[in-house]
Design goal:
It is a single chain. With 102 residues, the protein is an all-alpha fold. The chain has a domain at 39-95. The chain is 60% helix and 0% strand. The protein has five helices and no strands. It has helices spanning 5-8, 14-27, 36-64, 74-81, 88-93. The N and C termini lie far apart (91 Å).
């Protein structure tokens, strides 16, 4: 005769998994509020990453079309990028003025 003892206690059953999840979640620390300095650093890192993406995209497009000129300073880079960045939010990342409308 088979007992149903094993059927009542399945260590891998849904009740066990739910209990394990509840215990794990109960021990989790609440998310801390970020300090203003931390938030400012995070915003600056995002802006820096966006700059790198835009520069990389402009370089890749130039390589495929007209080539990339010799650039030896940040000012040269901005002068080269300025006519290629047409979207206002892309230009704002480099503190460029909005493009002139024709």
């Amino acid at each position: 005769m088979m007992t149903d003892r094993g059927a009542r206690h399945d260590p891998t059953g849904p009740d066990s998994r739910a209990r394990d999840r509840d215990q794990r979640d109960a021990g989790a620390s609440p998310r801390r509020a970020q300090s203003p300095a931390s938030t400012a650093t995070q915003v600056e890192r995002k802006r820096d990453t966006r700059k790198k993406i835009l520069i990389g995209g402009a370089v890749l497009a130039a390589v495929a079309h007209e080539g990339v000129p010799a650039i030896s300073s940040a000012a040269d880079l901005l002068a080269w990028l300025a006519p290629r960045l047409t979207r206002p939010h892309d230009r704002a990342v480099f503190d460029l003025t909005p493009p002139r409308t024709r």
